[in-house]
Design brief:
Length: 276
């Protein structure tokens, strides 16, 4: 009987023993942002720290999920640096604050940008910082974009964004909207820290549902796609999920599709028939 060595890596194994070959690893890079020390002393507390919100693409007619930004350092001359994450993955942030401390100019740069980012062209954002409301509102896009998309960021954690009240709810009752937001965000964090069964059960069901919907939507050429209700459900999940979760769940869906495709090709080679 052969011995087992824990020092072996995937590259040391013979891939012929694998039914589906070596699959692409799950992309966990976006979760590295969660390890950043948010409790470090801040030279510019009005800007430094975590910001979350939505960035809208005019050509897609809406947001593609939450955007999360951590401004880590801000110098006396107004320059700042940080990191961010959206459904594409992690990216770097750099920019400058105006002399009035409210005008911001930010650049979003990632090593491998998707088609929405214009190849390797940095995305520029010109926004205004409202210290009282703790919000950043502005426009963003590449230099070649004729029309820019809106970007709205708030000083709240990504996990609490799903409990944020709507403008209509805030108009009807400010106190009720704020209280509902606070209760929902606190309960979520308590259940997460206690590792409660209710938290993990809801999180697993949410992940499974997102992967299922995204699988059918992204590969609509191969499958029936989604109806209107399912499309609305998928958009709602993307608006509420943390960017790292969205990015990771999409990578799982893509891996599942590759496995299914590989199995289909293998089956057609073994049994060259029209139907099963």
């Amino acid at each position: 009987m052969g011995s087992y060595s824990g020092d072996l890596s995937v590259d040391d194994l013979d891939s012929c023993i694998l039914t589906f070959g070596v699959q692409e690893e799950m992309d966990l890079t976006a979760y590295n942002l969660l390890d950043l020390d948010k409790r470090a002393p801040k030279a510019h507390p009005s800007l430094e720290g975590e910001w979350t919100g939505h960035a809208f693409y005019n050509d897609l007619g809406g947001s593609q999920g939450l955007m999360q930004i951590f401004i880590m350092t801000a110098a006396a001359d107004g320059t700042f640096r940080g990191h961010g994450c959206d459904y594409h993955g992690a990216f770097d942030v750099c920019g400058r604050m105006g002399e009035n401390k409210s005008d911001l100019e930010m650049n979003f740069v990632r090593e491998e940008m998707g088609p929405l980012d214009g190849g390797n062209i940095p995305v520029t954002c010109k926004a205004s910082l409202d210290i009282t409301r703790e919000s950043v509102v502005g426009l963003w896009g590449t230099d070649r974009d004729q029309s820019k998309g809106e970007i709205n960021l708030l000083r709240i954690p990504a996990s609490a964004h799903r409990f944020r009240y709507s403008p209509k709810a805030f108009e009807e009752s400010q106190a009720r909207a704020r209280w509902s937001f606070a209760v929902g965000a606190v309960l979520y964090n308590v259940r997460r820290r206690l590792w409660s069964w209710r938290f993990f059960k809801a999180r697993f069901a949410e992940r499974r549902r997102f992967i299922e919907l995204y699988y059918c939507w992204h590969f609509a050429d191969n499958y029936d796609g989604l109806n209107e209700a399912e499309q609305a459900e998928l958009k709602d999940l993307e608006r509420n999920l943390a960017p790292a979760d969205t990015h990771f769940y999409r990578s799982i869906s893509r891996s599942q599709f590759k496995s299914s495709l590989h199995m289909l090709v293998t089956h057609s080679q073994l049994l060259p028939c029209c139907r099963c």
